[in-house]
Design a protein that fits this description.
heterotrimer, A: 555 residues, Cytochrome C Oxidase, Chain A, 16 helices, 64% helix, B: 219 residues, mainly alpha, two-stranded antiparallel ribbon
């Protein structure tokens, strides 16, 4: 281990000029690791805001009738919750934070292909958030259309739809640029010798995600522009009075938003593929199958958007086609699950917090995914569409899938990012509390939805009260667990014991350099002619110290 | 990005063979790949717009055909040829630069800029004519006509407007190119920014190749 | 690939040849509706056919796809295929919606 090294916290490259001021050194830094941390700070702040909005919604729903907010405010609340959670939190999500931090490290590169573009993406992201904040307070009041802004309400609503959509456009642009950057990086900056099928599976997740970010997001970008034009100029595209078709908007919206959910889950699956071999001390089962299945999910995900529209008035023929395609897209996902479980079979598993989160996710995501199949059956969806069944499904899949794996990744790479370790005892307890709270919060909604409770309603019939009450209590447990988890991580960051380069004794390249890494990542770039998860009898095959700069002059 | 002192980083494998490490600061292929990725996003944007057009064309054949007769084919046709020539001049500027003829390259870029400005001028004239006839979104004249006509003109202004914005951005980039050449940042051996601009301009041309017949020639 | 020099050599003549072809095709495209009075579908086939040829010429020669690594061909063809598959799915819906061709009419 190198003696004293300066970490990336102490020195950095900036986009122009040299600054004495530390704040300027951060916001002008083109170092992917600093950009990742800045994204994380902004993202989680807004995650907290959206959680608070949700808590207030659940308080309102504790009893029938109005408690703390009226129907219009409720509409604004779930719109804001959706816009923040989707566009500000989960779409940038893992790629912008863990992806930005780890991609070059796992590839053996010194940064991404376009570091200045990376910083620009972050600034555009921040600009989008500022526009969103503006939309909350301007003239017409915060948007109340739902995050899905269906026409004709979105083209007629008096609320601040134009600024909300502009914010979404900017946030989408940041996502596109990140995807572009990652594609170029993965194609060009892999360490010598590292072919595509020697990359870590987290990189495969980021790669397939980047293609979705790149190709699907522009579709919603132009859709947003057309809705704005419809509102401002009246081009007639979505206005039935002028021959326009509101269902066309639904189609264009879901042409992005369905691939978007695969964009969310693929990096999360990549995290699972990193954590499982490390804590099972053996190579992952079916590396090629997992890699290829990511590609298949990304591709098939473009063809199933109509399953959000079974009740929209589209033809039965196309509904059946979409239903069949939706069933097919579940297959590559299950391939991954079988491979992870096969990896765990007969392994001596180390149940540290990252592994707990991953196993917990297997449970919740399986419920989320299988209920997705239930909804994919047209005959059933006629009844379940726009009920709490759907709400429970996507929270199990996104919160219990993507976010749980994001937490797993945070706990896994925490020592790498800040050089210290959190308390295992407190972190695992926080996991259990969150896990219990999550299920108490969301599971009753499956039942309520099946019994007919509609979504986005601020009031309901008395027969649904018990489900809402259980869910609201669950939300308190869930949030208590979240606070406990974040506090544990905070304490670890401030006061935790120093973690060395490889506290988990893992195999991928990021663990062969100091924690936290130096500014240009590696002293020496390794030649990679080995698979990423090579363990022999529980020990990594290759031990490298890549912090040491060998006698090589590099430009 | 031009520098003559770049020494690539070399590492060695277990057999002692040297391998070059790609540096993000000096990666021509990476710049090309990144720009092509950007062009793919533009394909998706305009592709979606063409999709909306086809959707409504299918539903409103007759109205679209009649509306197409109102378009000014002379101005549209002139613009088509102007853009075609400008694509040639842009492409040739790259050839000249790579062969070392920097002044000719700059003249060709200036020609492209002027042609693009003329294109915009003619487009502005066309728009004024349409608006003068009352064919603009939300106009009282359109209110009396069929839905297909309303949609046709809504799409016309949206798509040519979006295309026009891309032309304006292209002009800005070309002006920036000229300053880069003057300051020596683009040279006959370091030309990826010019090459990417030429790709962009070709793409803008391709969009027009599709827009022109769909709006002007289906009468 | 580090330096900018080691590329397919590029010549003015191929640019000029393609330019002439494009001029011819553009002229054909403008003349066609004047001399051939056909229904919309036929006009569209011809117009889009000519446009397709022009686009292939521009992408192959002006945008150098012809001389580039096959990966770029895959990118362009792949994205086009993605767009066309989305069109095709929507076309099925448009054709069948609220008509007797639908499955459960």
């Amino acid at each position: 281990m190198s003696m004293t090294h300066t970490s990336f916290y102490e020195e950095t490259h900036t986009v122009f000029g040299h600054h004495k001021n530390k704040f300027l050194q951060w916001i002008f830094s083109i170092d992917h690791k600093r950009i990742a941390i800045m994204y994380a700070i902004v993202m989680f702040s807004f995650f907290a805001i959206a959680v608070v909005v949700a808590l207030l919604m659940r308080l309102e729903l504790f009893s029938p009738g109005q408690q703390i907010m009226g129907p219009d405010t409720y509409n604004k609340a779930f719109t804001l919750h959706g816009i923040i959670m989707i566009f500000v939190f989960i779409v940038p999500g893992i790629p912008a934070t863990l992806g930005n931090f780890l991609l070059p490290l796992q590839l053996g590169a010194r940064d991404v292909s376009f570091p200045r573009l990376n910083l620009l993406s972050f600034w555009i992201y921040c600009l989008g958030i500022l526009v969103l904040l503006y939309s909350l307070f301007g003239g017409g009041g915060s948007a109340d259309t739902g995050w899905t802004f269906y026409a004709p309400y979105s083209t007629n609503s008096a609320s601040n739809v134009v600024s909300a959509l502009t914010a979404a456009y900017l946030l989408g642009l940041a996502s596109i640029l990140t995807g572009l950057n990652f594609i170029a990086t993965i194609h060009r900056l892999r360490a010598p010798g590292m072919g595509f099928f020697k990359m870590p599976l987290f990189v495969w997740g980021l790669y397939t995600t980047a293609w979705i970010q790149l190709l699907a997001t522009p579709v919603v970008g132009i859709t947003l522009i057309m809705v704005i034009l419809e509102r401002v100029v009246g081009i007639g595209i979505f206005d039935p009075a002028k021959g326009g078709d509101p269902v066309l908007l639904e189609n264009m919206f879901w042409m992005y938003s369905h691939p978007a959910v695969y964009l969310m889950i693929l990096p999360a699956f990549g995290i699972a593929s990193e954590i499982v071999p490390t804590f099972c001390r053996k190579p992952v089962f079916g590396y090629h199958a997992i890699a290829v299945s990511s590609g298949m999910i990304a591709f098939l995900g473009y063809l199933v958007w109509g399953h959000h529209m079974f009740t929209s008035g589209q033809s039965d023929t196309i509904s059946l086609i979409f239903s069949v395609l939706s069933f097919i897209v579940a297959v590559p996902t299950s391939v991954k699950f079988f491979d992870w479980i096969a990896t765990m079979y007969k392994a001596s598993i180390d149940f540290k917090t990252p592994m707990l989160w991953t196993i917990g996710t297997f449970i919740t995501f399986i419920i989320g995914g299988l209920t997705g199949l239930i909804l994919g059956a047209v005959g059933v969806d006629i009844y379940f569409h726009d009920t709490y069944f759907v709400v429970a499904h996507f929270h199990y899949a996104i919160l219990g899938g993507v976010v749980f794996l994001m937490f797993a990744g945070i706990h896994y790479w925490f020592p790498k990012m800040c050089g210290r370790m959190y308390s295992e005892k407190h972190a695992s307890r926080a996991f259990y509390i969150i896990f219990v709270g999550f299920n108490v919060l969301w599971f009753p909604m499956f039942i309520a939805g099946a019994l007919g409770m509609p979504r986005r309603y601020f009031d309901y019939l008395p027969e649904f009260t018990i489900y809402h009450r259980i869910a609201t209590v669950g939300s308190w447990i869930f949030v208590a667990g979240l606070l406990y988890m974040f506090y544990t991580l905070y304490r670890g960051w401030r006061y935790g014991p120093i973690a060395g380069p490889n506290p988990w004794n893992a195999t991928t390249l990021e663990w062969q350099i100091p924690s936290p890494p130096q500014a240009d990542n590696f002293g020496t770039i390794p030649y990679v002619d080995f698979m990423p998860y090579e363990y022999i009898e529980g020990e990594p095959v290759h031990h490298m110290d890549l912090s040491v700069k060998e006698d090589v002059h590099h430009g | 990005m031009a520098d003559t002192a770049y020494e690539p980083e070399i590492i060695f494998d277990k057999q002692g063979n040297p391998h070059e490490v790609v540096d993000w600061k000096h990666d021509y292929e990476g710049s090309k790949l990144g720009f092509w990725a950007f062009l793919l996003t533009e394909m998706m944007i305009f592709g979606t717009m063409f999709f909306v057009y086809s959707f409504y064309l299918y539903q409103n054949n007759a109205d679209f055909v009649h509306a197409s007769e109102e378009m000014n084919r002379l101005l549209g046709g002139i613009n088509t040829f102007i853009l075609l020539v400008s694509a040639l001049t842009m492409g040739l500027s790259l050839v000249k630069l790579r062969n070392g003829h920097v002044q000719t390259c700059k003249k060709l870029i200036w020609t492209t800029i002027i042609l693009a400005v003329i294109f915009l001028g003619i487009k502005y004239t066309e728009w004024s004519i349409e608006i003068g006839h009352g064919f603009y979104p939300g106009s009282p004249t359109l209110d009396t006509l069929g839905n297909g006509t309303k949609l046709f003109f809504g799409l016309y202004f949206t798509m040519t407007g979006l295309h026009g914005i891309h032309i304006i951005v292209g002009i800005g980039v070309m002006l920036w190119l000229l300053s880069l050449i003057n300051s020596g940042k683009i040279t006959s051996t370091n030309f990826v920014v010019l090459e990417n601009t030429a790709l962009y301009w070709d793409f803008v041309h391709i969009v027009w190749v599709l827009v022109f017949p769909l709006f002007y020639l289906i009468y | 690939m580090v330096a900018n020099e080691n590329l397919n050599p590029i010549s003015m003549s191929s640019y000029i040849k393609v330019f002439v072809l494009l001029i011819v095709l553009t002229s054909l495209t403008i003349i066609q509706p004047l001399v051939m009075h056909m229904e919309l579908a036929s006009t569209l086939y011809i117009q889009m056919g000519i446009a397709f040829i022009k686009i292939v010429l521009i992408v192959s020669y002006y945008m150098h796809i012809k001389g580039s690594h096959p990966f770029y061909k895959i990118l362009v063809i792949g994205t086009t295929a993605l767009l066309l598959s989305m069109y095709a799915i929507m076309a099925i819906d448009s054709y069948v919606r609220v008509t007797n061709n639908d499955i459960f009419n």
